[in-house]
Amino acid sequence: MFVDETGFSFRAKTATTWAPIGHTPILRRMSKRRELSTVIGLTLTGKIYKRHFEHAIGATDILVALRHFQRHIAGPMIIIWDRLTAHRAVLVKEYIAAHPDIEVEWLPPYAPELNPEEGCHGHVKQHLRNAAPTNTREMRAQVDRGFARIRHRPDLILGFFRHAGLNVNQLW
């Protein structure tokens, strides 16, 4: 499972759009910064698992996400993730040591292009660029719909793996 975290903000950059000539589109947004953080796991079967948090992600949140993944995936897991401080926290190391069914592989530092999950949350963020949620609940619903769209597009998921340089021709 490729794991990564991302934050969704009310201040995301807007995308270009269409409007009648002489009528500049107006997009009203809240001015809050990050309101929703998400830990996402992408498997070679094309399944996407996620856990939302309404704050920046720390070590305890990583544990919550790992437990969430374990509830949904039977058997051993190989977690492939970056070297985020929360991943290397003592609390997380102790949890992984206590669960021999979890093995961790580290991505090289500063190599987000090697994680196919980056494509998933990048795709969702692209679709949210002109969204105008009025609260965190609406933002979460829009993020959930974005990931649901990806789940129904195995061709897109395969593209994320290929973009990361992985020779994956089909989802298991």
Distance between the first and last residues' Cα: 13 Å
Rg (C-alpha, Å): 17 Å
Q: Could you report the average pLDDT, rounded to the nearest whole number?
A: 87
Helix fraction bin? 25-40%
Largest sheet: 3 strands, antiparallel
Number of helices: 5
Work out the number of β strands.
5
What is the structural class?
A: alpha+beta
- The strand order across the widest sheet is 1-2-3
The gross shape turns out to be globular
> SSE order in H/E notation?
EEEHEHEHHH
Beta-strand share of residues: 15-25%
Which spans have pLDDT < 50 for at least 5 consecutive residues? none
Q: Can you lay out the helices and strands and say which pair or pack?
A:
Blueprint: E1 2-9, E2 34-42, E3 48-53, H1 59-72, E4 77-81, H2 90-98, E5 102-106, H3 117-127, H4 136-151, H5 154-163
Parallel strand pairs: 4-5
Antiparallel strand pairs: 1-2, 2-3
Helix pairs in contact: 1-2, 3-4, 3-5
